Every structure is written in structure tokens, then in C-alpha cells.
């Protein structure tokens, strides 16, 4: 039960079990950082690229073929964002034509494990999730 509306986020109410963890994250300034990175890991293309690079380093066109449905422009943007975040490295070998390889950095490898565990969880629970969605979609409101 909310006794002070200023203490509750819009549309939410604190319960007696509220632990204050959110307040610690917000007070430390980490909330924006967490939100920023969750938007990156929640990005469809970024996670597919991370998953493919977790298998081995790849060249641009090899990566484009491996990530079904991604456009050249979107792959370029995704790779730049992941490189900016320090999750992948871009290595240019001065040959004719230049060879560019992309690989996960140690930070990227530390993300790859949780992403793979989440992917495994989704695959293991896909039928239950689909059944729940179907039941929800067919119920009368």
C-alpha cells in the first residue's frame, strides 16, 4: 500500500516486501547504464551477432549470411554499436582488398554465456510460452 505517492513510480506501488534495491541502483547512477545495456541486449540483431561471433570470428559478409534477415545497413550499425560498447573487436588486415574480421572481446565473451543460457531457456520453454499466448489471445475479456 502506498502511503506517499511521491515514493511510488507511476503505475506501480511499493509493497511491504520492497527491498530498496531499485533505490540503490538509482542512487548510484547505475539505472541509466543498466537501461542502456538492456536495450542493447534486448536488440534482436545485436544478440544474434553476439551469438554468431561467440562461435568464431567472422568477416562481414560471412556474418551477414549467418544472421538471417539482417540488411547490410543494419549489420553495419549493429557492429558499430557493439564495437562502441566494447563487446566486439574489428581487425583490419591490409591486403587487397582489405580483410576485416569481427570477434568478441573478453567483455563480449562474458555476455555470450548469459545470452546462450537465455536462448536455451527460450527453446526449452517455447511450447509452454506459445500455449500461454494462445490461451491468452483466445480468452474473452
For this structure, what is the CATH homologous superfamily of the largest domain?
Winged helix-like DNA-binding domain superfamily/Winged helix DNA-binding domain
**Main sheet strand line-up:** 1-3-2
- Helical content stands at 55-70%
Radius of gyration: 21 Å
How many domains make up the 3D coordinates? 2
Please state the second-level CATH architecture of the largest domain. Orthogonal Bundle
The major pleated sheet works out as: 3 strands, antiparallel
Structural class comes to mainly alpha
**CATH level-3 fold name of the largest domain:** Arc Repressor Mutant, subunit A
| Tally of strands | 3
Overall shape: elongated
* pLDDT < 50 stretches: 1-9, 11-16
Question: Secondary-structure blueprint of this entry?
Answer:
Blueprint: H1 21-27, H2 30-41, H3 44-55, E1 58-59, H4 60-66, H5 72-84, E2 88-93, E3 99-104, H6 106-138
Antiparallel strand pairs: 1-3, 2-3
Helix pairs in contact: 3-6
Describe the overall structure.
The chain has helices at residues 21-27, 30-41, 44-55, 60-66, 72-84, 106-138, and strands at 58-59, 88-93, 99-104. It contains six helices and three strands. A three-stranded antiparallel β-sheet has the order 1-3-2. It has 141 residues and is mainly alpha-helical. It has two domains: 1-41, no CATH class; 44-138, Winged helix-like DNA-binding domain superfamily/Winged helix DNA-binding domain (Arc Repressor Mutant, subunit A), CATH 1.10.10.
